[in-house]
Every structure is written in structure tokens, then in C-alpha cells.
Amino acid sequence: MDIKMIAVDMDGTFLNSEKTYDRPRFEKLLDRMDEKGIRFVCASGNQLPKLEYYFEGLTDRMTFVAENGAYIIHKGEVLYSAVMSTEMVQKGIDALQAYSDTPFLLCGVNGSYLKKGATGKYADIFRQYYLNIEEVNNLHEIEDEILSFTTIFQVTEVPEVLEYLEERIGKHLSVVGSGFGFIDILLPNVHKGLGMKLLQERWNISVDACAAFGDSPNDIEMLKQVTHGYAMANAEPSVKAVAKYEIADHNTTSLLDTIEQLIGL
Fold first, then answer.
1. How many domains does the chain have?
2. First vs last C-alpha separation in the chain
3. Is residue 182 located within the same domain as residue 122?
């Protein structure tokens, strides 16, 4: 097996429940990947600053497919950005506000934006996941290029919310569950699989030479875009259905063990 690119989701996959990973071991694996010319890709629904935080000191040695594929960065260079038009941003805001008063974020190139005065556990969760939140009076007047929306509900509520959003804005925007109650809204056909495809084309890497790891519905397209797709044991059934392999959950060493095998360490 001649692997040339390995992509990992973060929450529920690369990170354990404490939002950490075995950094010393990973650095050894990254050294080996560098030696063999294997590309390492961090593919997540998170914004770039959060991903860079997890890999501080290593960011110039990997590629980031952030915002579920809407923003791709390689060694500081923007390879791709899927920016919403003003009309699409307004459609997203109107749909979310019409459904409930649950807070949501607009995620842009330069920051993430929350309606001023948002309180409660969901607003607190946003502040945990996003490092650069700016509270604004009017979400319609943000001076930034918007890449996506993020909102969060109880996990049991997600199917109903997805159905509503799909009916309300599905003709114009893509709606996807990102796990742990998160729901993301992006431009149509923007997802982690697109990110993988663009990188494969850029570096002339075949799908047979790629591996990917995931656990949530927003990982499905990425797993379909590689021959060697791995679902975590904690993954949702829809993810396991498209992955070629299943490994132990994210609180074990299974992901790093598998990468070690893939790169022949």
C-alpha cells in the first residue's frame, strides 16, 4: 500500500474526549510522513485558528481543510475559499432566526460573529470551540467574507432542524450535521470531499493513495473520496456505511496505530 495523503477529522476522531492527542507520538509520525513525502491533512468543520491552535509549531508541515471544505490553507497560502454572496448570507440568517432563538455563528475569513447579548449553554459552547468570536449588533452588516454558518441543538433535535433547513434553504445552500449537535450551512457542493478532490488534483495523487478518518456525517464525502476510508467505532451509522474499515473509538490509540501501519513506521 503506497499512501501519499492522510486526512483526519478532529472532534470525535483525532482528538479524544478531553480534546487532546498524543503529541509526542504524532510528531514522530509526522517526521516519518515528511521523510516519505506523505501529505498530512487536517479536515474539520472548525475554523482555521482553532485548528492551528491544536497543531501549534507544526502548521507549516500540513494542510488544513477548514470550515468543512470552505477554506483550504497550505503553508499559509489560501488554496480555496467558498465565499457566500450577500443574498445567501441573508437567506441563512432569515432561516435560522425564523426557526428559533437558538444562537448561531457566521464564520468568516477574518473571524466568527455572534449576535450581541447571546447567552446560555450554546453560546458558551461556541466560545469553547471558536477562538475569535466577535459579538455584533446586526448580523446583516458584517464586513467579512462569510464561509459558513454554525448552530447547535440537542442531538435528538438535529434531524428535525436539518429537515426544516433543507426545506427552507436547501435549493440555495448545503446543510450538514457535523456531530455533537452541530449543524453547518455552506455553499452547495462544498464539503470535505471537495477539499480532498482539489488536493488530489493539485498534487496528482490518486484516490488509491489516500486514507481518511472520520466519525460524523460531514466526513462522508471525504471518506468516499479515498480508497482507504476509516470510521471510528464511535461514528454514526451513516459514516460506518461508507467507510471501508472500522477502528476502535477516539479514546484509544487506534487512529495513530493505523497511521503508523499506513506509513510503514
1. 2
2. 13
3. yes
Q: Are residues 98 and 73 in the same domain?
A: no
Query: 69-73, 117-121, 153-157, 255-259 — which is least confidently predicted?
Result: 117-121
200 Cβ contact list (under 8 Å, min separation 6): 5, 206, 207, 210, 225
- Rounded distance, CA 254 to CA 261, Å? 10
- pLDDT tens, position by position, 139-165: 999 999 999 999 999 999 999 999 999
- List b or e across 89-109, with b for residues whose CB sees 16 or more CB atoms inside 10 angstroms: bebbbebbeebeebbbbbbbb
9 catalytic residue (yes or no): yes
Residue range of the domain that includes 62: 5-81+191-263
SS3 assignment, position 183: strand
pTM confidence score: 0.91
Choice among 9, 184, 215, 219 that is catalytic: 9
**Same domain, residue pair 95 and 54:** no
- Of 186, 203, 238, which one is at a domain's C-terminal end? 186
CATH label of the domain that carries residue 208: 3.40.50.1000
CB 236 within 8 A of CB 180: no
Q: Which amino acid is at 223?
A: L
